[in-house]
Amino acid sequence: MACEACKAGAYDFRLENSSKNWTTGYNVPAVQNGQIVKEEIKHQDPQGMQAFVFNIRRPIFEDRRVREALNYLFDYEWTRANLSYGLYQRTKSYFANTELASTGLPSPAELKLLEPFRGQIPDEVFTKPYEPPKTDASGNIRGNLRTALGLLKEAGWELKHGKRGNAQGQPFRFEILLVQADMERIVQPFVRNLERAGIEAQIRVVDSAQYQNRTDNFDYDMIIERFAQSLSPGNEQRDYWESSRADQPGSRNAIGIRNPVVDKLVETLIAATDRESLIAATRALDRVLLWNW
Question: How far is Cα 117 from Cα 260, in angstroms, rounded to an integer?
Fold first, then answer.
């Protein structure tokens, strides 16, 4: 392992991205006596978004209320405390750790871009700062579960005999596709919370070749994906979000977004003539993506 080679002095610098390794993997004399320096270095690099991705090409995920409900069933605070050693911070923007990330309520410059779409985008874009659902990290998600059940019922998914289904008799069942087996420990508690809501979710781990083929062809219900970003977003945003890429094999529109408002905001971002305009357009796009869950 590269981690062991580093501790043995085989090479000089290692960037550690595993909370488990960082917490438990470096309790060795070389670190204790200062031969190896273990240091957290703050940075301002764009972090993008890492998240569970709904494939909204699938009918079960088309309704925004369903996507919101499932957000309430993921206990991030418990996961962070118990599985990530309390080290990670939750991503709250597709442009995290940059000035491009939306925060609070829209600025006047953002409102100028968003107002023409009032009624076509979620009302919360205008009235509420985006915050993902939270818990007290105890593992008891009763309040969030109640909210999720209400949203699912509104969306037409009723609970019958302990299983959730719609009016057509279709069960709420989906697969979470993984390529990294070590992510199972993050996903399994989520699956248990889904079961409490009458939803059946199955974890499937495949090899990298099969994973690449399935994701290139959007052959999945849910995956874990990272949307990398730069400090100067531009043409690549079309590949992430625009309708024209939703059915293009190999595109980065993993979600399957086909939204004319998103298309227009992406084009506005690309056409920005100065930094202030780029920031406003990116934040406006970020808000619409976030509030569509």
Answer: 10
d(CA 187, CA 23): 21
Token pair of 73 as six digits: 């069933």
Low-confidence ranges of the chain (pLDDT < 50): none
pLDDT tens for residues 190-247? Answer: 999 999 999 999 999 999 999 999 999 999 999 999 999 999 999 999 999 999 999 9
Q: Retrieve residue 113's tokens.
A: 């871009």
The DSSP annotation for 33-70 comes to: TTSS-----------BEEEEEE-TTSGGG-SHHHHHHH
Report the 10 Å Cβ neighbour count for 254.
20
Written in H, E and C, the secondary structure of 258-290 is CCHHHHHHHHHHHCCCCHHHHHHHHHHHHHHHH
Which pTM value belongs to this model? 0.92
b/e per residue, 27-50, with b = 16+ CB within 10 A? eeeeeeeeebeeeeeeeeebbbbe
Q: Residue 86's pLDDT is what?
A: 87
Q: How far apart are CA 183 and CA 178, in angstroms?
A: 7
Instruction: Give, as one character, the DSSP assignment of residue 203.
Output: E
